[in-house]
Amino acid sequence: MNVRRSAAALAAVGVLAAAAPATAADPSPSPKVTVPSGLYGKSDPTYDGVWRQSLTLVAQRTLGYRPAAAAVDWLTGQQCANGSFAAFRAAPAAPCDDKVKADTNSTAAAVQALAATGGHGGAVEKAVDWLKSVQNKDGGWSYYPGGPSDTNSTSVVIGALAAAGTDPADVRKSGKSPYDALPAWSIPCDQDGGGALVYQPDKKGKLLANADATAAGLLGALGKGFVAEAGKAPAQDACAESEHLTRAQVADNAGAYLGTAVAKSGHLLSTLPGAKDQPDYGNTADAVVALAADGRTEPARKAYAWLEKNAGPWATQSGPAAYAQLILAAHAIGEQPGDFDGTSLVSSLNALGPAPRMDSAAHEPAAEEEDSKSGVWWIVGVGLVAGIGIGFLLSGRKRRP
Membrane-spanning regions, if any (predicted)? Predict the structure, then answer.
């Protein structure tokens, strides 16, 4: 799997997801539907339109950009009257009906994006209310309402609740919150894959380690969304056994698993059934964010260094969500996304849709540090905004996100 959590694909095959997602598409495919103005990327948005747009807006705000009004309007225009979002609605002016497959992942991603951009409190509140209405009795969420809960969906909803200013611990169904659901998906330390989380137990209830779900679940256990920064180092590096795992133990055990998983090669492997194992760029980027959030900066930096050397072609092929994932990974460990092995993730992302503008007030101090690396970066960023306006094509698909 390549770009995070395009969980429709996962839901279809019953496997995990990226944070979950679909395979990368050709950089210039012929979309089955017309790519709307305001949407980032030029590939078919049927399965990932809201997801890739949301990640893009979150990444831009994290960098200090003010997303273009057209981009934000496109996202808000995708919302159904009940507050939910589907992966993509080709006719957003039409009311949502039974044929519109609203899902928790698209809705939660949109909440994080709209909360980050600001000024859309009503849309955020309606989306959060819808998410609360489809919570399962175990405290978690499924991709589509009515299905069994899974780690990825539960975790992205936790991120949405936190972004909206709602404590996930207070969101309960049958007395259980999402923090009650996560420990059930954590593999005991003495079993194969100990410390990892599963996407869902298999039909026999067996827990199979899933790196993507582990990264998502780690962030969920910490109450984090797409954006995270380096946290406090864990008390111990190894998996900690406990009959009743706390949120912190779920996170630390997951971090220990991910740290070991990237220790040798610096990257994670794909887990698509029937496919040959290959580097999984999207999940590795998610792992960087998760490891950093859990205070495991050394393995996070090793994984990011591998991405910097190897992930450029993947991002070019995959499009907006991939660039956003890499930007969020850079942010988590304090790296400069304007220099990603000699290329700029920032300019590459911003070129795929309507040009944002730099929120100059947010980075005024950095502009004064012209001799520092960060100061140079922001100067380059401002120059980029000035030069972006002309003829940028809506481009490149992502994903897996």
Answer: 375-394
